[in-house]
């Protein structure tokens, strides 16, 4: 399938972002929700800041202290056999690969702005910074859905209590109203549909089960965007394929004549992330019409293959203009890139199975 990656990719890199905190370095500016607001394209990007360690044998883990609200640091020694440091994103108890106790960076949401959709400038301050007990390890991976004159930003809140889906509402990208936690831990990748369907709002989400089951996509509905129920399993991983390890929602669902088009991410057990597509029924999005057999996008370019966590393309948002989708996507958990695709091409790919 024809994908036109921007010539000046990546569009935003860690070097373009000044750290908010003294003694920290920006190691990632990626996985951005996207909005068209007034005459600008906004990237609500996840910025990850890591405390600088002067000792190569020391890993520093930042967190927000629940009592003081201040940013604090705890230190771990790499030669301590009680901990596993194989994943650079987290610190895990040795022998428990699916459980982390601290993250190696603190994430928050910062806005990058562009008049032309290609050249971006980064705001000096954070737009969404951890503000409650469910976010003491940070907030991550925003998606942005416009419904009427409001923008609903769904994102992941991370704390020792788990990983949950949260929502805020804004009309100006300056102030916001907190709508709380939509789904309890463990859950990620919440996406809101851009309009009511037969009187209900719908959302995709991805439970991360610890006992049994897979990392699959589920769908839920709500009368008011705050109370969610009627949860149904929507899409599962596929053994032996590019999405055999985990899947999760990517872009806000796109309304087409043939159905709701959802671009989702899938990964192998080895954590190679690609993008695929699924088509859902217009009147009943709990029904899957078709799904791509092969990825529509893979980490083929060097900036997608090499970085903090390599071999990752991770779309979180885009802008629609006629048949053209401009998608902004995270690369290697490090930077943000852009590309254009034709919606008609994706639909043809779906017809092929």
TrEMBL record:
Transmembrane segments: none annotated. GO terms for molecular function: glycosyltransferase activity; hydrolase activity, acting on glycosyl bonds. It comes from the Bacteria. Pfam families: Glyco_hydro_130. InterPro entries: Glyco_hydro_beta-prop_sf, Mannoside_phosphorylase. Keywords: Glycosidase, Glycosyltransferase, Hydrolase, Transferase. Belongs to the glycosyl hydrolase 130 family. This is Glycosidase.
